[in-house]
Amino acid sequence: MAITVLQERDRLGVKPGRLFIDGEWRDASDGATWEQVNPATNEVVTTFAVASKEDVDRAVKAARRAFDEGPWPTLNARDRKAIIQRLVELITANGEELNRLQTLENGMPIAFSSMSVVSSAMAAGVFDHHGGWIDKICGSTYPSYESAPTGSEVQVLSFREPVGVVAAIIPWNAPMMLFAQKVAPALATGCTVVLKPSEYAVLTSLRLTELIEEAGFPPGVFNLLPGLGDPAGEALVTHRGVDKVTFTGSRAVGQRILAASADGIKRVTLELGGKSPSIIFDDAASVAGTAMMAMGMVSMGLSGQGCVCQTRSLVQRSVYDEFVESAAGLTSMVTFGDPFDPATTSGAIINKRQLDRVLGFIEQAPSEGARLVAGGDRPGGDLAQGNFVNPTLFADVDKTMAVAREEVFGPVLVAMPFDDEEEAIRLANDTEYGLGAGVFTTNIARAFRVAKAVRAGTVGVNEYTVMPNTPFGGYKSSGLGREGGWGSIEAFTEVKSVIIGLSG
Fold first, then answer.
1. In this structure, what are the phi and psi dihedrals at residue 52, rounded to the nearest 5 degrees?
2. CA 171 → CA 129, 152, 389, 449, distances in Å?
3. Per CATH, the architecture of 277-467 is what?
4. Cα–Cα distance measured from residue 124 to residue 367, given in angstroms and rounded to the nearest whole number
5. Does domain 5-272+478-497 have CATH number 3.40.605.10?
6. Which positions are catalytic?
7. I want to staple 107 with a disulfide (CB 3.0 to 4.6 A). Which of 39, 118, 135, 310 is the partner?
């Protein structure tokens, strides 16, 4: 099958990208550029400017000025809400283009890019949800009392105020949704933003920035810095003009950001990796259905390149063989090919470095005793030019194996048997991560017990999804803080108490 990446690029009219600083598009100060490569073919789609330390400094100062002197934090709720609503309308109107740009930049199949939680519709929904909070962000009043120093009566009020300048860093796997998840609550609360997208997915961030400009946000309120982790990311998170860092990505980078935030005591929200379990009991409504869900999560769409993917299937021993057989059967239903063909179900690994990492885990697992049931190789023919890996299932995996401990970030599912509820909970929690989990049972009492016992930020019972109005984040090494719903408003605001004397 011919893959039409470059034809789609030409149809969309993709041009070289630039930085957006203080309301102006500009080249990098040192002229540096980066090539946007589609992983389905490894063809160069376009080039874009990458920010230097000087560019980072300029962007942060613009955001600082827009926050300290500009109208955005003090704009009345009605007017700020109207601008964000205009952006929602623009994202919706340009939704198809945004979905196709996302496929062009990271190889996500267009069917997945258009119809899932990573689509333009989800991005618009995130902005719409957080825009709705703007005129509802309230403080509190407290009962009056006598002041200890003076004995006079006082009244105490609290206010929520924007935290300030936000440095936002997003990965390549769900760029539209994560752009919205970081930017929407920051803008809604009155913060100003400097955003650095991953160098592996810049096209949707560039287009969303154009829509922000068109919506009428004042200069400096939002700034876009395509760039590399070093120097741009490093300079951004360590800049003294930044008040808060919000980051989605790897645990290793999150640890570095947490250490860097000590200088200036920056507020930090981190959404890091996961090794999420799905716990399948023998009374699940459909063992075959749960197997299809688990295997589909790591093989369809982004081919397991998602932090919330349930990559560890813990299956009660009495239905273990049925689960493994059903999961293996789904692997033959996966279709690779042109990411712009609606019939294509699975995408490529983002780059050759990650491809080698995934293949390394697959090669290592059998040597540690895992049983390869399906996959473990790459498709050939015309697909060999892309970074494709066949969906891979390992059975009889032990908790000590690397494939059970580490976040592979590829189309690899491991199956592990358990005997009873206690063992299932113990296996589920035997990980450094705690981002998500799933529980599959028709016993409602068991569902509640297990959901409460599993240490993870999001636990699905017979279902699993992420929505803009619910808190999302991780336990343990999966991060700090929550995004979504009121949790996002809290994350981008500070609480100020005002004590008012009432005695004259």
1. -95, 175
2. 22, 54, 21, 34
3. 3-Layer(aba) Sandwich (3.40)
4. 46
5. yes
6. 271, 307
7. 39
